[in-house]
Amino acid sequence: MSPVLDVRDLSVSFGGVPAVREVSCAVRRGEVLGIVGESGSGKSVTSAAVMGLLPPGARVTGSVRLHGRELIGASARELTSCRGKAMSMVFQDPLSALTPVYRVGDQIAEAVRVHQRVDKEAALVRAVQLLDLVGIPRPSERALAFPHEFSGGMRQRVMIAMAIANDPDVIICDEPTTALDVTVQAQVLEVLKKAQQKTGAAIIMITHDLGVVAGFADRVLVMYAGRPVEVGGVDDVYYRTRMPYTVGLLGSIPRADKGGRRPLTPIEGNPPSPAALPPGCPFAPRCPMRIDACEEREPPLFEVGEGHRAACIRWKEVAPYDAGAPEVSGSARRERPPRAVLEVRGLVKDYPLFKGALFRRRIGTVHAVAGVDFDLRQGETLGLVGESGSGKTTTLTQILELAPPQQGSITVLGHDTARLDAARRTGIRRDMQVVFQDPLASLDPRMTVHDILAEPLHTHGQRRPGRRIAELLSLVGLDPSHAARYPQDFSGGQRQRIAIARALALEPRLLVLDEPVSALDVSIQAGVINLLGSLRDRLGLSYLFVAHDLAVVRHIADRVAVMYLGRIAEIGQVDAVYRAPMHPYTQALLSAIPLPDPVRERARDRILLEGDLPSPADPPTGCRFRTRCPKFRAELTGDERRLCVDVEPEVRPLGADQGAACHYAERRDVV
Amino acid sequence: MTLSEEELAEELRDGVMAGAPSRTRLIAGRFFRSGQGRLGFAVLALMFLLAFAGPLVSPWSYLDKDFTAFLQPPSPGHWFGTLQTGADVFAVTLRGMQKSLVVGLLAALVSTALAAVAGAFAGYFLGWTDRTVTWVSDLLLVLPAFLVLAIMSPLFGSGQWPLFVITLALFLWMVTSKVVRGMTISTKEREFIQAARYMGVPPVRIIFRHVIPNLSSLLIVDATLNVSTAILTETSLSYFGFGIQPPDVSLGTLIADGSRTAVYAPWTFWFVAGLLVVTVLAVNLVGDALRDAFDPSSKRAR
User: Are residues A388 and A464 in the same domain?
Assistant: First the structure.
């Protein structure tokens, strides 16, 4: 069967700087090609080049053939006729991809009418059908809604509906699930699969998530520095890896299905700048297998197996990444340390909801946090996980503010925040520090690294911080001579290290980490996670680790608390919770994580949650999860359901160090 | 946390890191590395030198009148020529520059500083601080500044120029402070401010260390523009007989007088006007260079 889309030696450069170099790939009907790579590897530019959507300054060479028709150099009219018809695209950010002022149904109908001669009515009917196909409940009603009335996952479904409106032959998905929560990601991937079956289209899936590719793609193309470095079937690339970069990527991902504290293997250094590529193999400076020959010239793609090619001169010697067998032993349960550094009891935080500009009246209350209990002991790491809107950030701010909570109590290092005077509060600030998600935003762009690190020291009365600053920089693995630079002169991973150094400046006992690695590329993320782990062990720190990435939490945390709609659904020792989650929500959450392991990924069955998170302004009665609970819908009898509707479950202990807020909790293996 | 102490001890002999670059030194370094900054600074310094050291070399003082030469073109006796009254243009120009430079620069600095502080406090603390600042600035906005300055002009007798500067500045800061307030509110939400708060840095220090430096581009542009505004306001005040009073002169009074004779005696106008233009240009160059020096993302002269 001849390929639908055939890309040969595609190169793109912007003002002489190559962004994509000699990309060749082909997709057949019904095939899914995954393109993976870190930021700056040229994967998005490749997709834009294929669609003919590059800005005017770009120079494109090579060939892109759709059904044998050359697209590079084709006239704008020709391109328009195939864009959206033969070839369509799903973008990363569904909010900015939809026009905010038109109804969703009209936008889909427009996509239909651009390429098909049908009247308005027929197009609208088709739009409703498409909405139904992508799983939007009450499609005829929702077609009249505006994009802002849709949640992120729903918007992405609309995008998919638009993409398949004209039965395309190729759908290019550019990070379609990156902006979404993991359970919504699972839903959207399912919709994509369904859409593909319906249309028989080939899909090019661009992503940085090796897990998504493992379960979804048939073939994988790994890109590095604008160039494919390994191409092959999913199993070949994952199990018979022949390129050290791919091995490195696979080794640097924390796994949700593997317990135990195995340090990740980060890839040293940073990706090269496209303007200054090294003379030989672009990966050579970071490669653990580098030899002198690597630096002579860039290796071509060697045929290393049936339909499997890799760009490494030592491909015969490359050992595939061995994830190790899933550990079986019950990993000696450690006693929890006795001293608590943080205790949260019955924490409640509401936000009033107002309406009207002139006469503001209260129309409701957002129950952001509705009764949360947990404690964190000395030297322990508690992972706080949950999807967006689950209240984890509010919980965090409540703790960090050190102000008396609206209801309940917060005890930090033995001090109740409700009974703190200003001096004490400042004292506690010294012992409790925070690291934010985005290091570029959390470091003052106008201050040098020296001043940034000196700030906490000055604030708490240290006069000459020069020495300490050098010490801190080397503690987090940076060169002390970089103190005179500005944050923007550093790469993402290095910036996060600076943020960590600042948090450590005063030798705190409690570190609050708000998604500290989610803004980083996988290969960089691994280094920061390892750093956090080793600092904790060396300095005896306690971490409150907030994240939405469950795999990272499993890797670093001792205990985990899963939040849903302002309450804790399940809490307990991390291996216990991951191995045998009790709460249906935790089970769904864990089953939704894509694993970078194609065989297991294909064999798993997902517990798909329906719909979106209910609004925290109007939570369901009784158990908050019951509206989406697969157990409530499928397994429980009418009588049993009544309990869920009437009584809000409290977290009750089940097992040694595990508790779940479910009336009918039972163990289930899902990872 | 003493792990790396031993290894570091060698590298860190006192003085290596102790003199770590502070922000002030770094910015000064970057400022003087840019050609613009050096040029602007040099010209401005030259202007000051001319204004304050010039009278020492000039044979005439600004009060002297040469009754042998009325409205004469430049000559070896009168370098810039003379006015209708017989006053030496060089001497009065320098005298005028002394006043205008000091008044213009100071008024601009004071008003921008006022705008920055008032706006940042209002935006950071909100609540009653915000209401007070907004009320005061609204009040000053509706007051006719020119009239108030005119009424107060008898107070600006000889030697009272600082009062004049302050009054002038008092009517220049309001609009900028509103912009600063708005920008502070958005800056306040940014994570590095949160980080500083959670670190225990007192609010006032956050304002001066984080908020205001991050608005420096705006403030510097504002100050640069204010220099010309201040000089021109002073000029128009003096033109109407308020502000600087005769026999004292300022660039404003000189330009006002000179413009009448500019056509047939260009030296009475063009020297003064030229120096004013050069001064304002130099201030703009300095402002540009300062803005670049403050902004780490500008293309730099490293």
Answer: yes
Domain count, chain A: 4
**DSSP codes, A77-113:** HHHHHHBTTTEEEE-S-HHHHS-TTS-HHHHHHHHHH
Contacts of B17 in chain A (CB under 8 A): 466-467, 469-470, 480, 483
Which residues touch A81 (CB under 8 Å, ≥6 apart)?
A: A115
State the distance between the two ends of chain A, measured CA to CA, in whole angstroms.
Answer: 37
> Does A450 contact B22 at a Cβ distance shorter than 8 Å?
yes
Contact A52, A45 (CB under 8 A): no
Sorted by where each begins, the domain ranges of chain B are 39-294
**Which domain covers residue A394, as residue numbers?**
335-516
Comparing alpha-carbon positions, the chain A residue that sits nearest to B197 is A401
Residue A479 lies in a domain: yes
Residue A589, both tokens: 């959450």
Counting one residue from A and one from B, how many pairs have CB atoms under 8 Å apart?
Answer: 116
In whole angstroms, give the CA distance from residue A524 to residue B163. Answer: 59
Phi, psi of A305 (to 5 degrees): 180, 180
Q: What is the pLDDT along chain B (302 residues), one digit of tens a residue?
A: 333 444 344 344 343 444 455 677 778 888 888 888 899 899 989 988 888 887 787 777 777 777 777 777 777 777 777 777 777 888 888 888 888 888 888 889 999 999 999 999 999 998 899 999 999 999 998 988 778 877 877 776 666 778 888 888 888 889 899 999 999 999 888 889 988 988 888 899 999 989 998 898 889 888 888 887 887 777 777 767 676 666 777 777 787 777 777 778 788 788 888 888 888 888 888 888 888 888 777 654 43
Domain CATH code at residue A670: 3.40.50.300
End-to-end Cα, chain B, rounded Å: 35
Q: What is the assigned CATH class of domain B39-294?
A: mainly alpha
Q: Which residues of B touch A430 (CB under 8 A)?
A: 200
Q: Which residue of B has its CA nearest to A539?
A: B1
